[in-house]
Amino acid sequence: MKVDERMTKDYSYRNLIVWQKAQELAHEVIAVTRKLPQSWANAVIARQIIASATSVGANIAEGHGRYSVGAHRNHLSIAKGSAAESDSWLDLMRREQVLTDEEEARLHKLCVELMKMLTGKIRDLEQLEDQQKAQSQKRETREGSTLYDLNQAPFPFTDADYLS
What's the domain range around 66? Predict the structure, then answer.
């Protein structure tokens, strides 16, 4: 996978492996739609799959920029739904014979991989939310709590989730 040279060495969403894979999906989908024969139906399908495929990375990025665990989890959930929607459009394109079995299989595999990665992070965030709710019931205020420090990986991500 080619890494953008402008990336910083901090814990930016651009350094997340899951975001990189989402961008790869979007790039591949755009490339496939450029080759579609011109028709009204193909134009509609192209708009839909481009919207869903580009939504995956965009929601991972937006969730990473949120300060609450719930908002972050919600955006990862939307990203997962967009990956599933993209996979559904890929299946339709194969059935309509505008995508080869091989192209669909390769992109389907990427969608499934993204959904698995996102599911794991969503579950981690749900556990963190449950822990935070239990802690907030024990005390009235949560002063001094910071979820995101650009010098360390924000939960649920670890150093292993980022490009080296």
Answer: 13-133
Q: Nearest CA to 61 among 157, 128, 152, 127?
A: 157
Is 7 a domain residue? no
Q: How far apart are CA 80 and CA 86, in angstroms?
A: 10
64-96 tens-digit pLDDT: 998 889 999 999 999 999 999 999 999 999 999
Q: What is the CATH number of the domain that holds 42?
A: 1.20.1440.60
Among residues 72, 106, 71, which one has the least CA distance to residue 86? 106
CA end-to-end distance (rounded Å), the chain? 13
What are the structure tokens assigned to 66, written together?
A: 């949120």
In 65-100, alpha helices (H): 69-95
Nearest by Cα to 62 from 95, 16, 4: 16
Whose tokens are 């981690």? That residue is: 124
pLDDT digits (tens, 9 = 90+) for 101-139: 999 999 999 999 999 999 999 999 999 888 888 877 766
